Amino acid sequence: MPVIVDPDNTTVTSLLTALPAGSHGVVTADRMRAWLDQHHDEYVVVLGPNLTLEAAVEQCEALRTARPTISVILVREQMDTQTLTQAMKAGARDVVVQGDSPAIAAAVNRAHQLFVALRGPSGAIQLGKVVTVFSPKGGVGKTTMAVNLALALTEGGARKVCLVDLDLAFGDVAITMQLFPTHSIEQAIGSEDSLDFAMLDGLLTRHKDSLMVLAAPAHPDARERVTAQLVSKILNSLREGFDFIVVDSAPAFDEQTLTALDETDECVIVATLDVPTLKNVKVALETLEMLNIANGHRHLLLNRADDAVGISPDKVEAILGMKVAAQVATSIDIAAATNSGTPIVVDNPDHPSSAVIRGLASRLAGESVSAPTATTLEPAVVSEPEKSGRRFRIRR
Length: 396
What we know:
Layout: E1 3-5, H1 9-16, E2 24-26, H2 29-38, E3 44-47, H3 53-66, E4 71-76, H4 81-90, E5 94-97, H5 101-119, E6 129-134, H6 142-154, E7 161-166, H7 173-176, H8 197-201, E8 205-207, E9 211-214, H9 228-239, E10 244-249, H10 255-262, E11 266-271, H11 275-291, E12 298-303, H12 313-320, E13 324-328, H13 332-339, H14 344-347, H15 352-365
């Protein structure tokens, strides 16, 4: 999918409307290069008007030799002979004027035609992973962890991530990120047979940190109209355009949550160090085991993990029968960052909690695009046996 580079988030959002569904936007050239390192099937880079001409020319020259199959399109506020000459010498395929959406779309289409001619039709589609953040009990910080984990997985734009708010009655993802979506999952109701990625792309809300969000309905009465079939269709359609789909699930084994769990590749279970929560988590783990969901791909995240409460991580592991993948200590900084609408991994990347969440994101991704800042992480989760066979398919 095309990738746009521009330091102004508003400009990126505007340019995305002229590009194919699923196009991506980043704010720095460094993030663009990280994106290209992860996506070898990329065919076009669009350099926005807020990049200086010198910086744009530099990127053109670098890509011309390093990635000859990638076309570079420059978007400029105005066109003149000097700009055109410099761009063409540097290897740009097209230069278009800002605001001319048809010209931008046509330039991207030509770039795709050239890519197909050079490399042939694309092969098998690499589908993204579904990561479900789940807890059987409310009030444990599940949404806060889901939001921060999704942002950590983007690696600043190097990966394409969609956060789905599947707490359909009382979802808080949008307000946590101070987003004001014009569309939500509610607009997909009734489209189980016709839904595709292009339609879903129009329902997503872009966060400034290169994260897309599918918001929960504004009113809880829509929950009953979101069928399990629709949830499955949404997640499988999003796989086509994203590297990771992070699901913030409801704190219950309802039909929609069970369907999401059945589609899950990696399951992050959030718990706090109190007896009622641990009892519920143990029952939930037994249920997941019975249904053969995410077997060998479950990760226990302890939130507000403080020794002072009298239950140690070792005791938690003994109670639940699984290793702790990550521990996030109680911190007023997390609450303050959440209340300000800037989650902790963005507000304070050097915070110990940010380092823990980024460490978990790296383990879920199986690799690290860029090494996190030096902070002490909890020990990595002990590897468990790989999944074998098909998962139990839930039928309702």
